[in-house]
Amino acid sequence: MELQEQLAARFGTGKVSVAGRLISSLTLGQPPLVNGAVLVDGGTADGGLRPRQRTSEPPASLALAVNSGAGAGIVVPLRRGIYTIGRSDCEILIPDADLSRSHARLVVTESAISIADVDSANGIEVDGERVRHAIVSTGSTIRCGNSTMSLVFLEQPNSQLDRAGLGVDEPLVVPRRDDPANRAALWLTAVLPLAIGVGLAVVTGMWFFLAFTAVSVFSLVVPLVSGRRQRRELAAAVGAAVA
Prior knowledge:
Blueprint: H1 3-11, E1 16-18, E2 21-22, E3 40-41, E4 62-68, E5 75-78, E6 81-86, E7 92-93, E8 104-108, E9 113-117, E10 124-126, E11 129-131, E12 133-136, E13 142-144, E14 147-153, H2 180-204, H3 211-242
Parallel strand pairs: 6-7
Antiparallel strand pairs: 1-2, 1-3, 4-5, 4-14, 6-8, 8-9, 9-12, 10-11, 10-13, 13-14
Helix pairs in contact: 2-3
C-alpha cells in the first residue's frame, strides 16, 4: 500500500504534499520526503497546495465597557457565547481586588444578554439592585465588586463616507447666510439718529442737531467699508489656496 493510501486509511487525510509536491510522486527517503519533512494535508492533483478557505467573522457590534474601578477603560467586544467575568482565568479579566476569581457569567444570545452571579463573595448589582440573575441591555448599569460596567454599541464605519475627501471634482456649495435681524439692526442704527437730528433741528431751529446725521452716516458707512474689505481679503486667500 502506498504512503498516501496508508495516511488516508489511518488518519483520514486528503491528498498530502511535501514542499508543494504530492507524496504519491515522491520516493520515501529521498528529498524532500526525508526524516523531518513537513507533511501538508490538502495538496491538489497538479502538485500545488489547495488554498485554505478562511471564514471572515463579522465585527462585533456590542461590547462590555468597564466605566469605573481598577479596570476602568477596558472594552471587550462581545459575540454570541458565554463570558466569565473575574480577576483570574476568565474571558473578561478585570484587576479588581473586590472581584472573585470567577465572579459572574455573561451570556450573549441572538435574542438577549444576561448576567448571573457564580457564587461570588461580593455579588453583582444591576441598576443598583442586588441580583443573582438578570437580563441586561445598553441602558443597564452593572456592578461587580468595585467596578461598574455597561453594554455599549461599537461604532461601525459608514460606507457612505468611504470616499469622502478623495477629490474636489464636485465641490460642495455652501450658501451664504443672510441674517435679516442683523441687517434690520444696522439700518435702524443708521436711520434713527438721522431722523432725530433732522426733527430737532426743524423744531428748535438749532441746526447743530444735524450732528446726529453725521453719526448715522458714520455708523452705516464703517460696517459697509469694513465688510467689503474683509470679503476682498477672503477672496484673495481662497484664490491663493487653490492656485
